[in-house]
Write a structure and sequence with these properties.
225 residues, alpha/beta, 6-stranded mixed sheet, globular, disordered N terminus, disordered C terminus, binds guanosine-5'-triphosphate, binds magnesium ion, GTP binding, Small_GTP-bd, nucleotide-binding, RAB39A, member RAS oncogene family
């Protein structure tokens, strides 16, 4: 287990100003998108990867899991490939979707700001994900989706921010319909994961808390790269 108690990590010769070899490009990040059915996960992914909103008549419930991918630029000249797993929110597909948690380094936990029950289920999704990735961890971003539907809002920004901070996540509000914050949500999450991956390498290569991310990212199967 990475970072297990009593395991001393080797020091790293990189960082601390020494020239060292150039950083290799980061491996693809596997991200998972979770949340109740109809909160808009698939539309969010279509908007992000294809730049379009499927619309009410063209968005069927996801069956099991769908796959998307895209490059994202986290700083000028530095791009990360994202492998994006869009999971079905319907309970009947849960046994399939659960098997995708383990290999993910991050995820969007989506609720619909016009659907209070989807907000109330956020903690359940988080618990479920935590249970299935142990002993590893996933970096989640909490997403309040459909923010174009202002007049139908059932969840305030303040209570969503409170929940995200209680759970150690950032919070953002998005709309696939008018494209609000879609780019930003994926960029923020990718940047946060990238920074976590970089830190232990710069400081002390076996950092107990974060080394799991490096291990997962490094050992990812390459068939989808
Ligand atoms: N107004 C508005 N409607 C949206 C938005 N995103 C999605 N929708 C609508 O919400 C409904 C459900 O969208 P989906 O993307 O299929 O929802 P899902 O979370 O993938 O659902 P499952 O696949 O069953 O888990 C559709 O009718 C979409 O048109 C948005 O940003 N604004
Ligand atoms: Mg879907």
């Amino acid at each position: 287990m990475p970072g297990a108690a009593g395991t001393e990590a080797p020091s790293c010769t990189r960082g601390s100003g020494s020239p060292g070899p150039a950083h290799p490009p980061p491996p693809p990040f596997r991200l998972i998108v979770l949340g109740d059915s109809t909160v808009g996960k698939s539309c969010l992914l279509h908007r992000f990867t294809e730049g379009r909103f499927p619309g009410p008549l063209h968005s069927d419930p996801t069956v099991g899991v769908d796959f998307f991918s895209r490059l994202v630029e986290i700083e000028p000249g530095k791009r990360v490939k994202l492998q994006l797993w869009d999971t079905a929110g319907q309970e009947r597909f849960r046994s399939i979707t659960r098997s995708y948690y383990r290999n993910s380094v991050g995820g969007l936990l989506v609720f619909d700001i016009t659907n209070r029950r989807s907000f109330e289920h956020v903690k359940d999704w988080l618990e479920e994900a935590k249970m299935h990735v142990q002993p590893f961890q996933i970096v989640f971003l909490l997403v309040g989706h459909k923010c174009d539907l202002v007049s139908q809002r059932e969840v305030t920004r303040e209570e969503a921010e409170k929940l995200s901070s209680d759970c150690g996540m950032k919070y953002i509000e998005t709309s696939a319909k008018d494209a609000t914050n879609v780019e930003e949500s994926f960029t923020i999450l990718t940047r946060d994961i990238y920074e976590l991956l970089s830190q232990p390498l710069e400081l002390h290569f076996g950092g107990r808390i974060l080394s799991w991310l490096i291990i997962i990212a490094t050992l990812m199967p390459r068939e989808l790269c």
